[in-house]
Amino acid sequence: MRLAVLDIGSRAVHLKIADLVPGGPPEPVTTLKQSVHLAEATDHQGVISQDAIGRLVGAVTESEAVAAAYHVDDLVPLATSAVRDAANRTAVLAAIENATGIRVRFFSGEEEARLTFLAARGWHGWSAGQMLLLDIGGGSMELACGSRTEPAVALSLPLGAGRLTRHHLPDEAPVHKRDVARLRQYVRAVLTEATVDLRDQPVPTSAIATSKTFAQLARLAGAPRPTAGAPGRATLTRSDLRQWIPRLAARSDAERARLPGISASRAHQSLAGAIVAEAAMEVLDVQRVTICPWALREGILLDRLAALGAQPLPAAAVPRARNHALHRLHTVS
What is the pLDDT of residue 231? Predict the structure, then answer.
């Protein structure tokens, strides 16, 4: 079965196409990433601008064309917290459907955490044991833990790096120590209250971090650049994070973008990302995390692969269908 996952995030629209065959991992076919910058185009009332909606519609249209060109059997279109939490999300979804015919759905935040946990388990295997997952997106942070394929606890919190930057940090650098302290206090308070069940679980054998935020922070702290031969081996320590927070606060976006690992597109929210990462590691008593290259999109692929392995392949999956179904989703609106 050839599956396409269309992931509408706070910064970009990602299309990932992979072939699924029971008994093996998802086999990548192609990917497409298009910047839409929804987070920056969302005002303090949670309204996404018309210009950003236009960019989003264009990106989804292009992604649909690529999926059709690769003759996918199924397209899974999903939006994460940037659209899910928008005040005008109904208008955003209507604009996409009117232009493309695609009905974008949402996973709940907890379902996102579950699927990302599944991806990390698939990458690291059973040797990870009791596993704690941390994932910082633009709009939300997902946390999960457990010793099996499915997490025992899965949480989603409004602690995304883009959201925290917009609502809690000044636009201009340098950022004063008091602003950093206030944001850190807010993040710790949210985490302390929301993670009681998580902290009641057995002590994790492995702490795994996914997302561009963690990957770039690991590079900033000195982890080697990932390579095709050894991806996912980078680690990040809490002590390194703590040292970099004041350095990021003292720099402008342009200066941050010149640091190792920090991309120009994520420089503005890198400080908030570092603050929430360090606070989460402190509240959850984690000294070091291992960076995992698989996340939500891979979790969706693995979830569908598990379903394929549990039942005979449909006849349409042998010769690939040219027409792909758009709406076969197991999602929560």
Answer: 56
CB-based burial label for 60 (10 Å; 0-12, 13-18, 19+): buried
The verdict on whether omega for the bond into residue 151 sits within 30 degrees of 0, i.e. cis, is no
CB atoms within 10 A of CB 45: 8
Residue 313's SS3 state is coil
Would you state the pLDDT for residue 40? Answer: 86
Q: What distances in angstroms separate CA 158 from CA 8, 142, 154, 241, 287, one per listed residue?
A: 17, 9, 14, 21, 23
- The set of long-range contacts for 177-180, using a CB threshold of 8 Å and a minimum separation of 24, is 177/246, 177/249, 179/249, 180/245, 180/246, 180/249, 180/271, 180/275
Q: What is the pLDDT of residue 227?
A: 64
Which residues, in sequence order, are CB contacts of 15 under 8 Å at separation 6+?
A: 4, 5, 6, 7, 31, 32, 33, 63, 66, 67
- Helix axis angle, 238-249 to 177-194, nearest 10°: 140
- CB proximity list for 35: less than 8 A, separation 6 or greater: 11, 12, 55, 265
Distance CA 209, CA 294 (A): 10
pTM of the model: 0.89
Phi, psi (degrees; rounded to nearest 5) at 39: -60, -45
Q: What is the mean pLDDT of the chain?
A: 90
The two structure tokens encoding residue 104? 């974008």
pLDDT in tens, 60-100: 999 999 999 999 999 999 999 889 999 999 999 999 999 99
Burial class (CB in 10 A: 0-12, 13-18, 19+), 136: buried
Contact assessment for residue 96 and residue 122, using Cβ atoms and an 8 Å cutoff: no
